[in-house]
Predict the structure.
Amino acid sequence: METVRATVAQALVRFLIAQKVEIDGEIQPLFPGVFAIFGHGNVTCLGEALEPVQDVLPTWRGHNEQTMALAAIAFAKAKRRRQIMVATTSIGPGALNLVTAAGTALANRLPVLLLSGDTFANRVPDPVLQQVEHFGDPTISVNDAFKAVVRYWDRITRPEQLLHTLPHAVATLTDPADCGPVFIGLPQDVQGEAFDWPVRFFEERVHHIRRPAPDAEELARAAELIRAARRPLVIAGGGVRYSAAERELLEFATRHGIPVAETVAGKGSMPFDDPRNVGPIGVTGSSAANALAEDADVVIAVGTRLNDFVTGSWSVFGNEQLRIVGVNVARFDAEKHLAAPVVGDAAVALAELDRRLEGWKAPQDWLERAAAEVREWRAYTDEVTSPEYATPTGLPSYAQVIKVINDLTGPEDYAVAAAGGFPGELNKLWRSHAPGTFDCEYGFSCMGYEIGGAWGAAMAHSGGEVVSFCGDGSYLMTNSDVYSSVLSGHKMILVLCDNGGYAVIQRLQEFKGGVPFNNRYEEGTRRVTDFEVDFAAHAASMGAYVEKVETLEELAAAFERARGVDRTAVIVIRTDPYTWTGGDAWWDVGVPEVSEREEVRVAHAQHEAERKRQRLGV
């Protein structure tokens, strides 16, 4: 057997470079880049292996381990899971900073390869710098923390283990059903150990993302249920995007006259102005989609994991006879709530269901009802987004800011958002110009994704601007990738709305009877006016083009100027903390059963009354 001698780190890098993927008939790198923050646990060996190959596997320096991994995740989403980025850190705190990002990737079913240094496999120098010691188990390191938040985990303690682990890692990253984050721990001594590797291990391999076809019996059962429906509703999730099944979804809904609601991850699956698109569903949904869900007798859940924000904690479905058809490449998701599963690729499954339903259409009055609900919803959203809509403070609302930017963007632009108040407002109000151009991380609701994610999206996206909507709370948490994007040349336009703290959480706090507490800056021990954060000056100090505006007219003009600059731009605007768009479904959160506050007791009673609407798993 022909072999080549190389270290573990060198072999790992060489293997990654050899992995390719076919995308639309073109062969591209499966791993197009590495995000890295070097420390003593990865710089001398893995860093040494990465430096000579920057022309084929570029390394991008991060400034926060969590957010550089979030950038990697956003890159994968923008690429519809066809390409995968790598993130590497040293040991200890650097590694642990990746855990939140791993959770974000796992919740969203997105691929990322995480490589962190580890303590010495030989244990001779223990305890080493940044090592935590477990008195009863010396095999444990901080990297064991990843086991709860990754799809595949390993620690390489002998060189030849790579021959087994790396193919399995790639198989996990590229599998449409099991897709998720992979973690590999690399002990510092093992990284530098040499081994005689089979040359065959490094041969180029072209991966093809499989499209599993559903079982014929499952298709037959699903078609039977749909044919019997009088009020069917499709819920389009992120799986539609990852399958690139937008055309099949549109044809299916059009031919059979079925309204389509969208999840946050599935937003943009249907053209905004298609008469069958009833908008977002659930807690951050539209009154139109939620009203139809209340009466639907068959729900066709396509590529969605049906989380509580989609289902209103399983309260939006009011028909006791409701049946769910679960179309999903992952069996786990397809069978939720006793659904009739159709396990397979979304595009393939929709095409097959379309064929089996030939000649059948939903009753016309159901589609007419949907159209009426949508007209009412859009009239309401037109009202709350108009410049004339008055807010309690006189400051622009999130809704009005979104409308301004939405009107100035087009099908080549790409919107990014995450936790806080923006997901709800964007999900309700953003009118997607084209499929696959909206990324709101709400599977894990990870604050900080807005900036790191926009950096990764800018690497993946071409032809238009990447526009990120960010609140002041998220900016203060993780802002360093403004600098990363400036240095790397991957431009974003960051619309930074300052509403004085965690305003949307204060809304929930007060809605459930609580006293405003620990959320807005004005509740601090010092006067906020004496210690206001100058977001514009801060962003400018990191090299961004910056404008601070006050009015919607100024916002529009600043955005147009931001389009013309050659680097990341940040537009700062003060916004109203009290104005939120309606349409919400009920959401199950813990409300105190006993409290000295009358408001809390009333909220608990109301909450328990609403809880009676929940479906109990059937």
Summary: The chain has a mean pLDDT of 96. The CA atoms of residues 71 and 456 lie 4 Å apart. Residues 3-207 form a domain with the Rossmann fold fold (CATH 3.40.50.970).
